[in-house]
Specification:
It is globular, with a radius of gyration of 18 Å. It is an alpha/beta fold. Strands 5-4-3-9-10-12-11 form a 7-stranded mixed beta sheet, with helices on both faces. Helices cover about 25% and strands about 20% of the residues. It has one domain: Rossmann fold (3-Layer(aba) Sandwich), CATH 3.40.50.150. The longest helix is centred in the middle third of the chain and has 12 residues.
């Protein structure tokens, strides 16, 4: 997503690179097998079930490799003590959490997902992989500017929402969720995280208050960030404001030309290209 989706050949190469059973996807795509949910086996034997309506997000994560596309391969590095920790904010049903665990088998992954349907499905995906133990942890909270209770609005009425946001009141047929909220500082403290190798965010506009209000001490623990950026209402709720803000915190940033993604790293050699520097 640096400019557009990867070429088809790259997407299918990623399908074979990351899945032990790519034929399951091909049978679905060709209409030969429309049973749901689809069960995929990631490299290393990690299993993940995906309902058909979430296959678009699965393809973005696995085939497009969207959250790693802005980074040089191998640049998500462990801390000085050798530990790799990845925080997955907006984890939904757990596809990215399990995908990134397959890519970095020694990593600890903290998945943050507030919505009950998504969280329950995420937990069931973890139950498919008991050997992972506590190396992948699902936390049912929203990340926010302050701890407390947060009201999220989903317009689609989907069983596994991807659109729950702070911004819009629920329309007819939509759903309101009152969820527990924690700050980034809270998550770091509660899980004893002195270093985060990668912070992934897909949280429907909450990324602005999460990062703007996190505080420098919390952000200094983060080595790299990959996030989808959602255009908001305020003058600083857009990629044009968020990129320079991260630079002021010591990150070098790559911005997608479509204006919907930022990849940021403290080591600029980690990035495929650099648009903004501190």
């Amino acid at each position: 997503m640096l400019a557009k989706k990867p070429p088809t050949v790259t997407r299918y190469r990623n399908l074979w690179r990351h899945l032990e059973n790519p034929g399951r996807y091909l049978r679905w795509k060709s209409g030969l097998d429309r049973r749901e949910p689809l069960e995929f086996v990631l490299r290393g034997g990690i299993r993940v079930r995906v309902p058909g309506k979430r296959l678009v997000e699965f393809k973005e994560i696995v085939c497009d490799d969207v959250y790693r596309r802005g980074f040089v391969p191998g640049s998500i590095r462990p801390a000085a003590d050798g530990r790799t920790t990845i925080v997955d904010v907006g984890a939904n049903i757990g596809v990215f959490s399990l995908f990134i665990k397959a890519v970095y088998p020694d990593a600890t992954v903290i998945g943050v997902e507030p919505l009950p349907g998504n969280y329950d499905y995420y937990r069931r995906n973890l139950e498919l992989n008991p050997r992972l133990g506590s190396s992948v942890v699902a936390v049912q909270v929203a990340l926010a500017a302050q701890a407390g209770t947060l009201r999220l609005h989903s317009l689609g009425g989907d069983e596994f929402p991807t659109d729950a946001t702070l911004w819009s009141p629920a329309a007819a047929g939509g759903t309101v969720f009152d969820v527990a909220a924690r700050t980034l500082t809270d998550i770091l403290a509660e899980h004893g995280l002195a270093h985060v190798s990668l912070l992934k965010l897909d949280c429907e506009g909450a990324e602005f208050e999460i990062l703007y209000r996190a505080g420098r001490e919390a952000l200094e623990r983060v080595a790299a960030i990959a996030m989808e950026v959602h255009e908001g209402r305020g003058p600083d709720e857009n990629i044009r404001a968020l990129g320079p803000f991260l630079c002021r915190q010591g990150f070098t940033c790559t911005l997608s030309r479509r204006g919907d993604f930022i990849w940021a790293a403290r080591d600029p050699r980690s990035l495929v290209r650099a648009d903004l520097r501190p």
